[in-house]
Amino acid sequence: MIEMRVAGIALDAITRSPIVLLKDGSDRRALPIYIGQEQAKAIIGALERHNPPPRPLTHDLLNNLLETWEMQLDRVIIHSLQDNTFYAVLCIHQGEIKKEIDCRPSDAIALALRTNSPIWVMEEVVADASIPVDREADEEERKAFRDFISNLRPEDFIERGTSSSSEQ
């Protein structure tokens, strides 16, 4: 799994649909997830740390429920992508009891932001749906790897018999 963070909300240039952008720790990969208008507002509100509304909205209500029942959101996991739909779970615990609750990624992200919980994405999902952010850095990394491989010799893989007994 890869821990990701919310980089922001964008709008699709053609459909004007909101997209939440998740980025990995190196800022090299971005995972765009199309979301609804209301979820975009909830995520933006959490990102910008708006004052809570006078009456709790859905994600604030969920957060209040977690706190009232002494439950903690450990993490959000976006675990699969099927037919262009992302799937996520909330990993919650209360004492020794741990549960995974099915959730839309947009709701999971909005709740994770309110609880300062990490957002994790399965590597297969990142591989299938992410977009490169820094193509030049990706190409440089590929070139360095190709150079490294092309300079390897069979003897580089032979273990030398010169190691001391303290290293074994």
Describe the protein.
It is a single chain. Helices cover 33% and strands 33% of the residues. Helix 1 (37-47) runs parallel beside helix 3 (105-115) and helix 2 (58-68) packs across helix 3. An 8-stranded mixed beta sheet has the order 6-5-4-7-1-2-3-8. The protein has helices spanning 37-47, 58-68, 105-115, 123-129, 135-150, and strands at 2-11, 18-24, 29-34, 72-82, 85-94, 97-103, 119-121, 131-132. The chain is globular, with a radius of gyration of 21 Å. The model is unreliable at 164-168 (pLDDT under 50). The protein has a single domain, classed as Bifunctional nuclease domain. The protein contains 5 helices and 8 strands. Strand 4 (72-82) and strand 5 form a beta hairpin. By secondary structure, the protein is α+β, with helices and mostly antiparallel strands. Residues 1-133 form the BFN domain. This is Bifunctional nuclease family protein. One of its GO terms (molecular function) is nuclease activity.
